[in-house]
Design goal:
heterodimer; A: alpha+beta; B: mainly alpha; 15 helices; about 0% strand; globular
Chain lengths: ~525, ~325
């Protein structure tokens, strides 16, 4: 004994601070946990994964709070949109007006049309001989016994705004002038009237009506097209122009473009109007760093909230899987015999169910039932959890089967510890390292499954965002090619988060299992 | 051995029974089914019977008027007799449709699986022999990246780069616009050209696990005593790695390859759907979302049977390649 102490004494004598060789303080002791941590942090990939995860969590959970916008806040913008304002057709059919008291029905009109086509000057109908006289271009008068009873014309005589329909004689006289390219004054029904170059019928300065070949129809309900608009439109049409500007009564000038559809013979006049719309697919700017999505919502904010949803769903699903897996796997492994047999057969059944098709079918079913989006998220988590536990149950069972044969378990039995305590206090903690590794990797794969479902439109639904359903927008190939900022950031976030979980899980596996080290 | 296999097969039948019952029950619980929409459509035809009569008639003809259990046993009886029914969506016998589309998926999976093996195993070996080197980090990170990439996102990226920007490939579909005018070689090349992007997606997104398995197994074997002995004998490093070590990892690889056999026939649902490749994955997806019970039942039962068969096969193979494994 004294011999053995000798070197220590020597050491102590040379330097008071030097510790003895077998002094515990010379040896740096680390708990198994600390060893795991040390090994974990030596793995560069694992640390990188941890950093990625930290950034993702900050982005999703803190980012959502900092962001100035709400998850479903929509942004609007003014845009110029071309709306069809009026449709214009050129009248190519005869219209008829008969004098007061005279009868010129549709059968007689048909007879007239035939006579006109054949160039006859009279026709017979019901024992009456009608005389046809061409009074001007596309303008005919029909007379019986020398007195005009009806006129047929293509240039339409309209009443001016807020005026009564012009009388027969007024129309007759005005058309007579108009169709012969004449202007000037005429008398009808004792009124002194005049016709100007634009086809307006004037009484003094007052406009009673106007003559035009064009029929202008408003495409919007309750909009009365003013006469001067029609007039300027007519001038443009005559000149075969395609654009014009018109200042309305409200003093606002609007631009109009005219398109002609040859098959229907209709001119469409499009009005450029300022419209208040969702600011859809707005390019990235200082206000919206990642632009806006199809509903005019801020993309960056959606991305943050989407991350929150994706991560929370991943966590809850893994917690459900763990609870079911640890309880059933633990029972199975500990009790063995018929309990084990029964639970393992259930596990076999779950393993055999094609999970992705089943989840898709259930998703389609929820679509059909129009489940509320919030409730749907809950169901989704339950379904994923219930389909995912068998893997964990198998892992736990396998571990417990080997652990329960070890001496410390015999010791717990000898000490008379309760069964539940034996399982959950002495067996399960020994399974935890393996469980943590599996759960970390599982988190990644659950997030992938959820994203895939949301991408197919069967997972998380609008108004909630998830990284998967943000990418769903690329189903529209225009978005795919033109709006990278809609789907690439979400895909990158998703891939990074899953990568983070996989790196960390891989690092943990290496750290917990030092046999893999050289 | 024989009693073990018989026991396993009997057990598989029992499992299959439960699995199909569960799937059938889920399918029958679907609301707004195909039948309802068809009845709605038929009832709107001029002079047609009212909706209620149509739906009763259709339900009877599709065997939906029975309860779930009775309906299941009718289905099971038909199934056992080899009568799988007609697909509602495709209006042809289920087997015919399945036969039409499954081989395309099979070819796709076979090609991508071969590529995976050819790429993953050498890389896994390299990573293991140079553990903790830069090469190892790159390969491990690459494998994990492959696992982490969502197939739908990766496929879309490939589309954007190679189909939209570079215009080397078509965005989707199996055949090009000029397919009908091509001779048989040209048609073959056209199809092959359209399969490049889908197969690339499949290979890259599913190569990770195989690579990691190879690496882990190699590491385990390289730490074994007999490898130290081989090195001590003065064998070249090449002989040690490829003759002594790699051959011993084949045991586990065989089981993995056996386990991925069902994948050859189940198709790649997401990839096929994204690229509109008319394989079994795309077809089954279409039938699933409209609730085509005969086709979906057939497809899911088929997968279940394949899974059970491959599990059994894997266990037997394991015993065959590794004499240490005894089957009890």
């Amino acid at each position: 004994m004294s011999d053995m102490n000798k070197p220590n004494e020597q050491a102590n004598s040379t330097s008071g601070e030097t510790l003895s060789l077998n002094d515990d303080r010379r040896v740096k002791t680390l708990s198994p946990g600390a060893l795991v941590v040390k090994r974990f942090f030596r793995n560069r990939l694992a640390v990188l994964g941890l950093v990625i995860l930290a950034i993702m969590f900050l982005f999703s959970f803190v980012g959502g709070m900092i962001s100035p916008y709400r998850e479903d806040e929509q942004f609007y913008t003014y845009t110029y949109m071309e709306k069809e304002y009026v449709g214009v057709t050129r009248n190519e059919d005869f219209r008829y007006v008969s004098a007061e008291g005279a009868d010129f029905g549709s059968a007689a009109q048909a007879q007239f049309l035939m006579a006109q086509m054949m160039g006859k000057t009279e026709f017979d109908y019901k024992d009456v001989t009608y005389g046809v006289a061409e009074e001007g271009k596309d303008f005919y008068s029909v007379s019986v016994d020398g007195s005009v009873i009806a006129i047929a014309y293509k240039d339409i005589v309209n009443a001016a705004d807020n005026k009564e329909e012009p009388a027969f004689n007024v129309k007759y006289e005005a058309l007579k002038l108009y169709t012969n390219d004449g202007t000037g004054s005429f008398t009808a029904d004792g009124m002194e009237l005049s016709l100007d170059e634009d086809g307006n019928i004037l009484q003094g300065e007052e406009v009673l009506g106007y003559i035009s070949r064009f029929v202008v129809q408003s495409k919007e309900n309750g909009v009365v097209i003013p006469r001067d608009f029609k007039e300027s439109l007519e001038q443009v049409l005559d000149a075969e122009g395609t654009e014009f500007a018109y200042t309305g009564e409200d003093g606002e000038e609007h631009n109009y473009t005219i398109t002609y559809d040859a098959s229907t013979k209709i001119w469409s006049v499009m009005q450029e109007t300022e419209t208040y719309v969702y600011s859809q697919y707005e390019a990235p700017s200082a206000k919206h760093p990642l632009g806006t999505d199809t509903n005019g919502m801020d993309m960056l904010t959606r991305l943050m909230y989407g991350g929150r949803v994706s991560l929370i769903i991943g966590f809850i699903v893994v917690v459900i899987e763990c609870l079911l897996g640890v309880i059933l796997g633990g029972l199975s492994g500990y009790f063995g015999k018929w309990v084990d047999n029964l639970i393992m057969r259930i596990v076999d059944i779950f393993y055999c169910i094609p999970s992705m098709p089943l989840i898709i079918i259930l998703g389609a079913a929820m679509d059909g039932m129009r489940v509320d989006p919030k409730l749907r998220m809950l169901y989704l988590m339950l379904i994923l959890g219930i389909l995912g536990w068998p893997g964990i149950a198998r892992l736990v069972r396998g571990q417990i089967l080997s652990l329960r044969e070890q001496e410390f378990m015999t010791a717990t039995e000898a000490c008379g510890i309760r069964v539940s305590r034996r399982i959950f206090k002495h067996l399960i903690p020994n399974v935890v390292p393996q469980l943590i590794v599996t759960c970390t990797m599982q988190l990644g794969s659950v997030m992938l499954t959820e994203a895939t479902l949301s991408f197919l439109g069967l997972g998380v639904k609008f108004p909630f965002a998830s990284w998967g359903n943000i990418i769903n927008d690329v189903k529209n190939s225009y978005v795919l090619t033109n709006y990278w900022f809609i789907w690439i950031p979400a895909g990158v976030c998703l891939s990074l988060a899953v990568l983070g979980f996989n790196f960390v899980g891989d690092g943990l596996r290496d750290a917990f299992d030092p046999r893999m080290k050289r | 051995m024989r009693t073990y296999i018989i026991k396993r097969i009997l057990l598989s039948v029992l499992i299959l029974f439960s699995v199909t019952l569960i799937i059938y029950a889920v399918l029958r619980c679907l609301p707004a089914s195909y039948v309802e929409s068809m009845a709605m459509q038929l009832a709107t035809a001029p002079g047609a019977k009212p909706y209620e009569e149509w739906i009763a008639q259709l339900n009877a003809s599709y065997g939906l008027d029975k309860g779930i259990i009775a309906g299941y046993f009718t289905w099971l009886g038909d199934f056992a007799r080899g009568n799988f029914g007609d697909s509602w969506k495709f209006t042809v016998p289920v087997v015919e449709k399945f036969h039409d589309v499954v081989w395309l998926s099979f070819v796709m999976s076979a090609i991508s699986f071969t590529l995976q093996i050819l790429i993953a195993i050498p890389l896994g070996i390299i990573a293991a022999t140079k553990q903790y080197s830069r090469t190892d980090y790159v390969i491990t990170a690459g494998a994990l990246l492959g696992i982490s990439l969502p197939p739908f996102f990766f496929a879309t990226l490939l589309k954007l780069v190679f189909a939209v920007n570079l215009q080397w490939f078509d965005v989707s579909g199996l055949v090009g616009r000029t397919y009908a005018q091509l001779d048989s070689w040209g048609q073959f090349m056209d199809k092959a050209h359209h399969l490049v992007l889908p197969i690339a997606t499949l290979v890259i997104t599913s190569i990770g696990p195989l690579m990691r398995y190879t690496r882990t197994n190699m590491l385990e074997v390289l730490n074994a005593d007999y490898i130290r002995t081989a090195r001590a004998k003065g064998l070249s490093e090449h002989t040690v790695v490829y003759k002594h070590a790699f051959r011993n990892t084949l045991v586990t690889l065989v089981t993995i390859i056996g386990g991925s056999l069902p994948g050859f026939f189940t198709g790649a649902l997401i990839t096929e759907t994204l690229f509109s490749i008319p394989g079994i994955g795309f077809t089954s997806y279409q039938s699933m979302i409209i609730g085509d019970i005969p086709f979906t039942m057939f497809y899911m039962t088929f997968i279940a049977v394949l899974t059970l068969a491959s599990n059994l096969l894997t266990d037997i193979l394991y015993a065959v390649v590794d004499p240490r494994v005894r089957i009890a």
